[in-house]
Design the sequence.
């Protein structure tokens, strides 16, 4: 049993290693790209639609609704980024039913990369909505003494995102692996189902937290017009 897919090496040449995390991550991205291409190649505006298009519309509608409920006024603007985060983590969890597959989200390097994407996206959306000067000013509000604390807060919440997702995904995989060695198949099957549910919940939490951070970065730009109007 591997604690992390990083430990499963498929190929190595000197310092270069091709481990399960890299293989499964790129494989997962390929599946998502191919799936999106196949589902969207024959979209229809008529009443007669394919089951895949109906599923796609349901997923998009639910994600847009959740983004809007977080407080972002233009949810479709953030759909590409937040929707991709959700689908990646969710699909990584759903693929655990495949034999010998280990979710790349069980590696700290993958979850750290996902959290780093959020760390970069938050200021980009904040600068786009407020402008560079106004966004940077938020780091010294209400006083410049808060600058180091605000920076530490940005880094710490990114670390928390990575560790939370990594811990929950890895713990589920470890429990299933342990039960496979000491119990009959009935318990691992039940734990696999629970693992799928946990993975979907983690995908939801991760994407919602990313949306909350973006909404917080955009909050100043939303308040400013109201203040100027008054």
Sequence:
């Amino acid at each position: 049993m591997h604690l992390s897919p990083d430990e499963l090496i498929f190929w190595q040449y000197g310092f270069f290693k091709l481990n399960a995390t890299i293989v499964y991550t790129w494989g997962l991205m390929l599946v998502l790209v191919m799936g999106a291409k196949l589902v969207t190649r024959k979209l229809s505006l008529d009443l007669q639609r394919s089951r895949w298009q109906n599923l796609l519309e349901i997923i998009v509608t639910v994600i847009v609704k959740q983004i809007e409920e977080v407080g972002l006024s233009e949810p479709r603007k953030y759909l590409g980024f937040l929707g991709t985060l959700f689908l990646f983590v969710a699909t990584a969890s759903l693929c655990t039913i495949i034999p010998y597959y280990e979710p790349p989200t069980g590696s700290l390097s993958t979850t750290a990369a996902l959290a780093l994407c959020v760390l970069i996206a938050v200021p980009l959306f904040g600068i786009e909505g407020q402008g560079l000067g106004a966004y940077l000013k938020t780091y010294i509000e209400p006083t410049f003494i808060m600058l180091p604390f605000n920076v530490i807060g940005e880094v710490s919440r990114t670390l928390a995102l990575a560790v939370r997702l990594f811990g929950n995904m890895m713990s589920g995989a470890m429990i299933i692996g342990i039960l496979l060695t000491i119990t009959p198949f009935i318990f691992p099957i039940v734990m696999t189902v629970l693992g799928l549910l946990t993975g979907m919940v983690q995908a939801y939490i991760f994407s919602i937290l990313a949306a909350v951070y973006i909404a917080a970065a955009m909050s100043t730009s939303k308040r400013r017009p109201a203040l100027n109007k008054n």
Notes: The first strand starts at residue 9 and ends at 13. The radius of gyration is 21 Å. The beta strands are 9-13, 16-19.
